[in-house]
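BUG: 3D viewer hangs when loading the predicted structure for this chain

Environment: internal workstation, default settings.
Expected: structure renders.
Actual: progress bar stalls at 90%.

Input used:
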Amino acid sequence: MATVDETARRLATIPQLTVLRDAPLSQYTRFGIGGPAALLVEAPDPPSFIEALHTARASGLGYVVIGAGSNLIVADEGFPGVILKFTAHSIALNGTTVTADAGVVLQDLVDRTVDHGLQGLETMTGIPGLTGAAIYGNAGAYGHSISERVTSVEFFDGEQIRSVDNAGCQFHYRESTFKRHKDWIIFRADLTMAAGDAVALRATADKILNIRNAKYPPTMKCAGSIFKNFLLTNLPENVGKQVPSTSIIEGKIPSAWFLEQVGAKGMHEGGIQVADYHANLIYNTGTGTARELRSVIGELKRRVRERFGIEVEEEVQYVGCAQQ
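Structure tokens produced before the viewer hung:
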């Protein structure tokens, strides 16, 4: 296995890369939690990223690919290997077709399409993160998901750059083939939009953004909702019958309903707090640690499991620590 110094020297020979030593990952996550990465590498184009990825793999140090850190929980000890970020962020419009790099901030993509009178992403305003991560997790809100607009995705499968159409992405609720093949790296995507009225789209987006900001203030150190919502059809019948019809929205049951039944609201440990107004919102008050955050998540999962016999599943990903 190569040392960190040896790996850093090899990475430094790759054009276009930015290589940082002992980068504090708390500055790269929305939770504001996490120790240092031995090496953090930012690559602005596919060739440099692929070469950096090969170098990281060959080092034997271990590596993780991250986006904007919106849904990451990083261990307090940090990560002893290589953290890779793909930072290309161009957006190209051609009629109702939009091509976006994976490193595009999702809000920038929403604003660009809305301002050009392109309908389809306006309900996703305020969702933090990058476009690549949104496709990876099939992000969405208000009854719509990004999968409705994706026509093709270009990605690296570990050996070559390939492209798949919408069907090949195997989108499901908050799922995609990329989430099941974590070694596949999204580089860019084509989306097909619908023609719309820019003024009306902006009004819709602004209304949603105001609602979202009231629930998840931009300065709050959180990942939005921690747990995925449930599809009613996937729940045991005896569990589904316990949920009031008013809590079933478009065939989905918010995880917050189950969490509220087990006393999640207001729960806290150290610097980690569950909001007193939203049972599926966990945030860092400023002094929280990954250990405390994982402890709260684990306790909530235990309570729901014991009460309802079901598993609430995190939307967050873990770096440097095992999943709960």
